[in-house]
Each structure stands twice: as C-alpha cells, then as structure tokens.
C-alpha cells in the first residue's frame, strides 16, 4: 500500500488540490485564474504528481488526511477501471459533489443514486443528442453577429465571446424565447458562486426559487427546435446543462486561441486544459488495487491535467495534436470522463463548439499560440487580434 508521507500529502494539497479549489470548481474565479495563469500553477501540479508516481510507484497513493480516506490515482489503467466500474462500486455522487451541487441542481443526475440515477441518466442521454436541435443554424445566426463585431473592433475578447456564447446556449437549451434572458444565466452564476463554497456557504433558497421559476417558465413553452421540447421531466436536469455549457464556452475560446478546428480541435482544447480537472468517485465497498485493499467510502481522485499533459508518457503532451483522436486513445485522457458516467452532453458540446470554430473561421483568422502550450491558460484574459501581429494572451 502506498501511503504518502506527511510532507508529500502537504505537497499534493498545496500544489494540486487547493489551487484547483481556489480557481473555483463550479465556476472559475477571475482573480484566482489570473494569478494561476501568471504562476502557471498547473505546471507545478503536474510536477508534484510525477514525483509522487516516481516515489511510490503505480498503486493508488493514500493521503494522510484525518476524517476521510483519500486515494490519488497515478496509473492510467486504474483510471480506466475506476470510470468503467461506476456508479457501482465507484459512485459519482460523492459527499463533496453533493454538497456543492445541492446549491443549484439538487435533482441533477450527477448526485443521484440507484434506480433514480438510471432513470435520470436515460432522460439526459436521450435529450442531449445534437440532432435534437438545429445547432448549426443557431450558431451561424449568432456567430455572424459576433464576426461583424470583431471585424469592427479588430479583436475578439472573452467578454464579447461569452455574450454570444450564452445567447447560443439559451437558444439551444430553451429556445429563441430565452435568447435575451441574461437574468436567468446571471442568477445561475450567483448560485454557482455559492456552490464553489460547497458545505461552507448557506443555501440561498430565495434566489434558487427565483431561478427555478424563471427556468420553468421557459420550459413550459417546450419550444420546438430546443432541448426543452424533449420528453421527460427536464426541470431538475436543465440547471446542470446550463452550468456545463459554461465549460464548453471556455473550451471553445481556448480552441480559438490555439487555432483549432473541428470536433478534434474542441477535444484537444479540453485535453490541454481540462475543465473538470478533478474527477471524483467514492467507493461503496472495500476494493482491491494492485494487491492491497482500500476501505469502503474511499474518495478516489483523478487529477486529469497530470494524465493529459504527462511528458513522460505523451510525446504530444504540450502541443496541439488533433490526430491522437483518430487512434486508440490513452485510457487516462478523459476530458469528458469515461465509462457509464461519461458526459452525456459530449456530442452536443462537440457539435456546438466545432460549429462556432467553423463559422468564425470563415471570415476571421487569429494567429495561434504555439508549442509548448502553457500549462494554465486563463480564458478571461484571452484577446485574439485579427490584425497581423499575433495572438496576445495577457
Ligand atoms: C466542455 C464541456 C464539458 C465537459 C469537458 C464535460 C465534462 C464532463 C465530465 C468530466 C463529467 C463527469 C463528472 C463526474 O464524473 O463527476 C460530466 C458529466 C455530465 N455532463 Fe458534461 N461536460 C461538458 C459539457 C456538458 C454539457 C454542455 C452538458 C449538457 C448540456 C453536460 C451534461 C453532463 C451531465 C448531465 C453529466 C452527469 C452525468 C452522470 O452523472 O451520469 N456536460 N461532464
């Protein structure tokens, strides 16, 4: 059994887990992201993980933390097993996730269990198929407006991009009637800011009820050509969809910064800068790993930036390498998770993101960041110049 020394536990907490928490697990905090970008904090995190693997070998490494059995994975085949054997015996609904997500999506599939989880999973899988919505037409409409704006200002900023992005998202999820409802997504943002604090922040019942009422009004229209027209009780699921589309916007903006195109471009952006940097599972029984047993209720941690950017194993660690998605993939490259708990929104994200890249790419070109790509890329600060001088990431 690999049990980390107190010093190594402190290192993992200080350079891997706390910076991830500080950036904001549910919604990114701009100030911390700016600092993380300057310090390239993910670089240190990946180095800590490499040292840990060198020191303790491939077994899951237990941290010395009182009150919780925590095991950090370092072996790609263990990552595959953990995700493949979810939700039993490795539950997606860990205590930490429940505490965070109860703030804005208490009925979401991610923190559900047993038969209820199966029912909700099916609703999500059925509803989130890209062919349910005219993604390309919606994107084209909105991206054309953005293109004109960029042509007049000479640059694409995160603020301009994200306004367009949220119009696209509200139309895809709720229909044209929600296009201009900034209040809806602003209220969700406030709830997500509370969720960053998980157990520590009181629940704002009034705000949550206001958000849910607004959302239910949109859903009641069941607008044709939007996800809201899909069958099943969607009201408890849509908060997660809106929340997760934020990550998809970040991934798309970063894809623009590296000159990526198509669905592989979106996948690469999500590999290089995973928006779910920590995938968590909680064991419901004692489980055996490399010959040793870990107790029931162990929290398993997969720190994806380590597996996605590990220079010891991946020759393409720090460059844009869309070709890897055509070949059998390393089992620990999992920006959308894997196994039965894989992101059911994946194809919709790829369709939406790739449509944005293609539409903007028709009229605009941005000089791309080149290898070695930064370990941390603060999306808030990305400014893409359309003039010849080059991409500036402040
Ligand atoms: C770049 C964008 C996205 C990425 C990288 C991403 C990634 C992920 C990951 C890693 C998980 C697993 C989380 C865990 O195991 O705790 C997940 C779950 C999930 N995602 Fe996404 N996601 C994205 C966007 C979306 C979108 C836009 C939707 C919906 C419209 C969505 C719907 C879901 C749902 C419903 C789950 C829960 C699945 C379950 O519990 O079985 N995701 N996603």
TrEMBL record:
Cofactor: heme
GO molecular function: heme binding; iron ion binding; monooxygenase activity; oxidoreductase activity, acting on paired donors, with incorporation or reduction of molecular oxygen
Record key words, sorted: Heme, Iron, Metal-binding, Monooxygenase, Oxidoreductase
Organism: Lentzea jiangxiensis
UniProt-listed Gene3D superfamilies: Cytochrome P450 (1.10.630.10)
InterPro entries: Cyt_P450 (IPR001128), Cyt_P450_sf (IPR036396)
UniProt-listed GO biological process terms: sterol metabolic process
Keyword Nucleotidyltransferase: no
Family listed: Belongs to the cytochrome P450 family.
Annotated protein name in UniProt: Cytochrome P450
One Pfam family per UniProt: p450
TM helices/strands, residue ranges: none
